[in-house]
Amino acid sequence: MGPKRSGASSASSAPLPPLKIDPTTVLSDAISFSGTYPITIGANTVLHPRCKLNSTEGPIVIGSNCIISERTQLIAPDIDGLVLGDYVHVEVNCHIQAARIGDATSIEVGTKLGKGSCIGDNCTLSPLSTILDVGVLPAFTVVYGENQRRMDTSATAVARNETMLAHIDCLKKLLLNKSEKYTR
Amino acid sequence: MSSFPYIHISCPCHEDRPQTFTIDSARPISPSKSPSKHDFNFLPTDPHTPTKRRTLLGGFTPSVSFDGGNLGLDLDDDEELTDEDDENNFDPRDPRSAFSLFPIENLLYCEDCHQIRCPRCVQEEIVCWYCPSCLFEVPSSTVKSDGNRCTRNCYLCPVCTALLAVIPVNHSSGHSDHPTGPFNLFCSHCHWTTSDLIPPIQLEKPTSISAQLSKLTHSPQDTEFIRLKQHYAQQLGNAQEDFTNSPAALTRLMGLYTGLGSGSGGHGGSRKGRGVKKLEMKEVDRPREVNEEQELEIVERMAVEGLEATTTAKQRLTQPHEPRFLSDLTPTAVLLRTKRSKRCRACRHILVKPESKVQTTRFRIRLVALNYIPSLTIKRLDSTITWNNLTPHKTHRFLLTVTNPLFDPISVSLLTPRRTPGTAFASRVTILCPEFEVGANTDVWDDALMSTKPAAATPSGVSTPPVAGSFASFSKDPKMSTVYEQKMNYTSVVIEVVPPEIPDTRETRIRDERLLEIPIYVRVEFEAEVDRDDEEGGGGKPSHSGASGGAVQRERVEYSYWCVVGVGRVGDPVEGVVASEPNTPVRTPVGTPVKAPRTPAAMRTPLRQVRS
Ligand SMILES: [Zn+2]
Ligand SMILES: [Zn+2]
Ligand SMILES: [Zn+2]
Ligand SMILES: [Zn+2]
């Protein structure tokens, strides 16, 4: 996306894709929506400023209680679209072209998810991990180190979801909600 | 290798002969003022004995990187260029010099020896031990008794080496300030927990983890260690009275290692002929036991659980019991770190002394070379130059900037061999203005402000920045023979490099012939204040500055060092760019070297005093 000032300014130049946004969703300033397929965002989800959602190839569906961080790109890979579950945390500077991301999955800084990849529930991808195109990650997989993998048996999923909620509560106090800008 | 460009400074310790210094007093000079003439009193030795260098080149280099044919070439080249200066040139490819080349940031400076000190010529001393995780200082007596790991609550994940956190096993919703046990150690990076172990480790309290863990993770290796420790402590205790300075004690000690005193048998005459009474030092004579049943069990388990359940070599070796399976890994206590002070090896004066408090990162003493010797930087004058792909036969222009850290203005001479030494594929190097002045480092604030706006660094010497292929206009500019830019406390000059065509030798040889490194000899002269009488030299000459009434004298100080500029790698030859030996853009004829050997003696004295 070329223009520096996306979001509202891009709204004037290019039409926004059809948005279906829950009233409790927090959309920050300068989010870039592009494409023509619909984008759906669930309840209590927070989108940081300058994240980019591209629905040119297919629809994007984001579940509830998710966090999408700055400079992260969500790109629908194909007509089947990109579907994020609930409690998904996508950190800064990720490049996501996955088809599915399961519930309570944490994707850390600078991760690249290849086109059409499928990430299961409760996965953790440590910073700068890479998943190849059409790669499949079973539920409870942890990707760490030099693309090493292990199964998460810590049973901390519930606790982590609670942490997510606290995180979102905090973000809601800090971030300005500019939802109305995109949903006029 | 390192990314281009780089500038490494040669520490004088690469010379084979130790240097002789005459320091008439150990007068420390404060970093706020420049070293004076007095401080550079020094008996010069010849750092680059030609015969020595030759021997090295003939005897050692070929075995490393040369085949016979090239060796001949190399020597021919040497002979062709043989003149007095060439023999004194610093060869960056000399095996010996490789050990002494460091970026200026890595170098220290000894105020008493008035020499650069590299990591090779300093001595380190431990100031304190501390845990990098909890930042608690550990007394060295505890380190000796309890080992070099944190004995508090700091543990690392055995799978991924991240720090472990204590979490309750049963997650209770709601905000309870006092979570109830049992507790797990949990890695927030890879989600490993102590419950993954077989049998799982669960702690009762969230504190004093070391004590709890040592009870829970007790391997046979620990038992063995305790047994050995007891054995030797007993032996030592028995021998305590004998361990005086008696020769018998020494013989017995020696006997321990020659096998005579060991109880392992095989040396029949071990006891005979020795006047020692009951005491005989004994090694623990038990061989390492391998239990076949256990080993078979391991093989079986591997077959069932597969490769994924086994540890990597790295994981295995960081644990004392060398576990084969992931489920046998135990949390690793954090290794302690040290703060160290550094001393000059020659004069034992302290060069670096950190604050002994663990939490502070300040230094009490830190004599870094950056504050004492001018630093060089190099940048492209022409942005089309790619560092990794210099074009053969093309004239590349770089800007060499000398920055003065001293509070006196300095005059700098940059001397470089006309052809890069030590290689059969020498590049031609010309420094357009090899002698110039650099202003004093007067105002720290001005300096700081200058560095924040690099846009201000527009060429003041030339009105139009030169473009590639337009050196007609470039060479006509009369100012090019002067400095390119002169500001505050730095001066920039142009350096021209014409690399030859060089075959790519990276595949076939150890050394990369295409690597273009230029040795530059930096000679610095300045007038420094001498704030007290100099018995030795004070009577000889009157002071330079007429302003003084005898109280403050100004005297001339000279010192010098070699540095190596890694300009880049020469690329493949480019169509159309051919050797242009006769009409080189270099102003001075090829016959006259621009390296300005006006004071050839200076080439041989790295640190020399001039009485003027
Ligand atoms: Zn050294
Ligand atoms: Zn600690
Ligand atoms: Zn871990
Ligand atoms: Zn010293």
TrEMBL record, chain A:
Kindly state which keywords UniProt assigns to this record, in alphabetical order. Answer: Cytoplasm, Cytoskeleton
Q: Which family does it belong to?
A: Belongs to the dynactin subunits 5/6 family. Dynactin subunit 6 subfamily.
Protein name (database record): Dynactin subunit 6
User: PANTHER family per the record?
Assistant: DYNACTIN 6 (PTHR13072), DYNACTIN SUBUNIT 6 (PTHR13072:SF0)
Give an example GO cellular component term for this record. dynactin complex
Q: Where in the cell is it found?
A: Cytoplasm, Cytoskeleton
Which GO annotations describe the biological process of this protein?
mitotic spindle organization
Q: Source species, please?
A: Arthrobotrys flagrans
Question: What molecular functions are annotated in GO for this chain?
Answer: dynein complex binding
Automatic annotation (TrEMBL), chain B:
The family database entries (Pfam families) matched by this protein are listed as: Dynactin_p62 (PF05502)
Q: Phosphoprotein: present as a keyword of the record?
A: yes
Q: What is its main location?
A: cytoplasm
Residue spans with biased composition (Acidic residues)?
Answer: 75-89
Q: Listed GO cellular component terms?
A: dynactin complex; stress fiber
Sequence segments annotated as region (Disordered): 27-48, 75-95, 529-552, 578-612
Q: Give UniProt keywords alphabetically.
A: Acetylation, Coiled coil, Cytoplasm, Cytoskeleton, Isopeptide bond, Phosphoprotein, Ubl conjugation
> Any idea where this protein resides?
Cytoplasm, Cytoskeleton, Microtubule organizing center, Centrosome; Cytoplasm, Cytoskeleton, Stress fiber; Cytoplasm, Myofibril
The record describes its quaternary structure and partners as: Subunit of dynactin, a multiprotein complex part of a tripartite complex with dynein and a adapter, such as BICDL1, BICD2 or HOOK3. The dynactin complex is built around ACTR1A/ACTB filament and consists of an actin-related filament composed of a shoulder domain, a pointed end and a barbed end. Its length is defined by its flexible shoulder domain. The soulder is composed of 2 DCTN1 subunits, 4 DCTN2 and 2 DCTN3. The 4 DCNT2 (via N-terminus) bind the ACTR1A filament and act as molecular rulers to determine the length. The pointed end is important for binding dynein-dynactin cargo adapters.
Q: Which family does it belong to?
A: Belongs to the dynactin subunit 4 family.
What is this protein's name?
A: Dynactin subunit 4
Name the source organism: Arthrobotrys flagrans
